Amino acid sequence: MRISTEKLLLFTSDMLVAAGAARNEATQTAEHLVLANLKGHDSHGVVMAPSYVGNIKRGFLDPKAHSKIVKDAGGVVLIDGCAGFGQVVGREATAFGIERARQNGIACVGLRNAHHLGRIGTYGEICAEANMVSIHFVNVVGHEPLVAPFAGAERRLQTNPFCAVAPRRNAPPIVLDMATSFVAFGKVKVAFNAGKKIRDGVLVDHNGVPTNDPNVMFSEPGGAVQPFGLYKGYGLALMCELFGGALVGEWTMQPEHERTGTVINNMLMLILNPDVFGGTERFQHEITAMVDYLHETQPARGADRVRIPGEPEREAMAERSVNGIPLDDRTWSELVDAAKSAGMDVAEIANYSG
Ligand code: NAD
User: Fold this and answer.
1) DSSP letter (8 states) at residue 147
2) Residues with CB under 6 A from ligand 1
3) Which of 132, 137, 141, 145 lies closest to 180, judged by CA?
4) Contact indicator for 45, 316 with CB cutoff of 8 Å
5) CA dist., res. 32 & res. 142, Å (int)
6) What is the pLDDT of residues 100-145, one digit of tens each?
7) Is 22 helix (H, G, I), strand (E, B) or coil?
8) CA–CA separation, 219 vs 222, rounded Å?
9) Which of 21, 193, 278, 341 is the most buried (most CB within 10 A)?
10) Which helix (H) or strand (E) holds 226?
11) What is the pTM of this model?
12) Confidence at 303, pLDDT banded by 50, 70, 90
């Protein structure tokens, strides 16, 4: 099915309100999730909402929590997300960091103990709107590992996202926003939900043998997701673990820490004002010239054109804003079940389908 942005937003927001969130936090969270769907990242869209409802019920997500400053050293600030909606506390931490970067030229913000932050690119895009550069190292804790280290047949890491965003004058920002696993885990779930095979290179089975079957991530003995780029992606995942998790969050995937089945993100965020480096003029001139240079590359055989990071998401958004957001049957039925468990009645839910 395809569903309009407006209906999906309202359904998700109503579901979170029924689960115990206030309207403001529910709407902020729903907007973030639906934006991920619009940008083509269904893995970080509304497919996550049922787990949010479940985590509110289990007491792992506090829908009313806001961020708290733990340590303030001017340019370096440590913020506790208090297990609130990541989409709410992540936005608060980003806004705070932007203010500090305006004052100091650079801000280093550590956000720890946020419930799932969703699509990390959103925080980078908020920085870019304020004409700031941003770099994000994120780790994921609270549940069993999913990703094998390079040359390993066992899960030891999470999908630890890395994001770097450069603002552009009179043009959309450059947004490199990626899981350090071959794909974000939600994409394996989306393939599993749709009963589809996953592409080569993403998964190995419990012996470390490559497989295209997403079932290995949802059955025993389990397989693992591979890091992207062999040992280089594995190395970046480790640095997300150490900077996002150890430096900021005090939690990494090592087994001393509890794994309750929740999803907690810890994020180290560097926000830089281009004015205090070589100056915005030079920076923007170089970005424009470099982007033009790349766009003018002759396409490889079979490719239509060279893109800049962030462009595929804008293309998806242009299409989905017009034609609606695709949802497979399994995702829809999980959303309906989550809405029922949150207390919405069947007639109310039926208003949102289609
Ligand atoms: P992806 O592989 O689809 O894209 C990664 C990056 O590559 C993007 O910046 C994209 O613009 C760029 N890109 C894609 N195709 C391109 C092309 N043809 N030319 C140039 N650039 C191109 O994304 P992913 O790794 O599957 O991650 C998806 C999302 O999952 C991200 O938004 C990430 O923040 C999110 N995520 C979140 C968590 C979490 O715990 N909160 C964990 C993992 C991933």
Assistant:
1) B
2) 41, 43-44, 116-121, 140, 159, 161, 163, 175-179, 183-184, 187, 265, 307, 309-310, 312-313
3) 137
4) no
5) 22
6) 999 999 999 999 999 999 999 999 999 999 999 999 999 999 999 9
7) coil
8) 6
9) 21
10) none
11) 0.96
12) very high
